[in-house]
Automatic annotation (TrEMBL):
Its EC number is 1.1.1.31. Coiled coil: none annotated. The active site is at K200. It comes from the Eukaryota. Residues 194-314 form the 3-hydroxyisobutyrate dehydrogenase-like NAD-binding domain. It comes from Chlorella ohadii. It catalyses: 3-hydroxy-2-methylpropanoate + NAD(+) = 2-methyl-3-oxopropanoate + NADH + H(+). This is 3-hydroxyisobutyrate dehydrogenase.
Length: 320
């Protein structure tokens, strides 16, 4: 994997909390771009892999956030509860000793509910930076924070082609842009804190429903005697074409390099898709929006092995 080196990134120290499939690929891009990296995760094996690539390891989010010279901190965590624990828990980023927080920029790339994003951003506004960090950033007294969930999956993280949907102050998004562009191709400012999460949830609503629809169509075609490779070529040159058919096809043997070609291992776990659709339902209830397809899709993904990629709905729900 070739990552363009950025002279501007050289010597900047960045923290990364949460190095699962997505986080590890994103952190590797930062290393390749020239950033110095310090990581934190409960998975010691994941930390060891990045340490062998040149990263340092912190035992807790609080210890990481207290590291002198840390310029920015990125998090990529599975759920709202994990984000709250990482930022607001007893060993959390924003619960360090007063005046001991070093990163002036906090970027949460997790997919969580917008209310939690707003809650954590408000806590950041009440947290004081270390005097040296404040001096280094034109007297900034409190960290800037954005929510920046991503689209593109593990392949996009590995290729550096992610899209970041950002919520927060424009100045904070501008400050985060060099970091985000080292990991992706598009940075979209959606509005205030929480709007990045809203955009991501709407995206995953469409993704979850479209993957179920593509799987249903391919499975039906196979039972009626059509080769999934042939049917996929029809879909991809017709009005049913979508990312789930032409980039992340769920039928084994249609595409190389996607989870369906390796037993549905890796990628975006079905439990996370079910979780995200649950967040959509909660947000929809909050504003009174009907989401019947979301409700049905969540029910279907809850029938899939939670450790497998969400495209395994093709095999486990549609029995293809």
């Amino acid at each position: 994997m070739v990552v363009p080196f950025s002279p501007a990134a050289q010597r900047l120290l960045v923290g990364f909390v949460g190095i699962g499939n997505m986080g590890a690929a994103m952190a590797t891009r930062l290393l390749g771009a020239g950033y110095r990296l310090i990581v934190c995760d409960k998975n010691e094996e994941a930390c060891s892999r990045l340490a062998s690539a040149g990263a340092k390891v912190a035992p807790t989010p609080a210890a990481l956030a207290s590291t002198p010279g840390l310029s920015a901190l990125i998090s990529m965590l599975p759920s709202s509860e994990h984000v709250k624990a990482a930022y607001l828990g007893s060993d959390g980023i924003l619960t360090v000793e007063p005046g001991q927080l070093h990163p002036h920029l906090l970027v949460d790339c997790s997919t969580i509910d917008p209310i939690t994003s707003q809650e954590v951003a408000a806590a950041a506004e009440d947290t004081w930076l270390h005097p040296h960090a404040a001096e280094a950033h034109d007297g900034q007294r409190h960290p800037m924070m954005i929510d920046a969930p991503v689209s593109g999956g593990v392949p996009g993280a590995q290729a550096g082609s992610l899209t970041f949907m950002c919520g927060g102050p424009e100045a904070a998004v501008d400050a985060a842009r060099p970091l985000l562009e080292a990991m992706g191709k598009r940075v979209i400012h959606c509005g205030g804190n929480g709007t990045g999460q809203t955009a991501k949830l709407c995206n995953n609503l469409v993704l979850g429903v479209s993957m179920a629809a593509v799987s249903e169509g391919l499975a039906l075609g196979k039972r009626l005697g059509l080769d999934p490779v042939l049917l996929s070529s029809v879909l991809n040159t017709s009005s049913a074409r979508c990312w789930s058919s032409d980039t992340y096809n769920p039928a084994p043997g249609v595409m190389d390099g996607v989870p369906s070609s390796r037993g549905y291992r890796g990628g975006f776990a079905s439990r996370l898709m079910a979780k995200d659709l649950g967040l959509v339902k909660t947000a929809a209830e909050h504003c009174g929006a009907p989401v019947p397809l979301t409700e049905e899709a969540q029910r279907l993904y809850e029938q899939v092995d939670p450790s497998l990629d969400f495209s395994a709905i093709y095999k486990q729900v549609y029995k293809a």
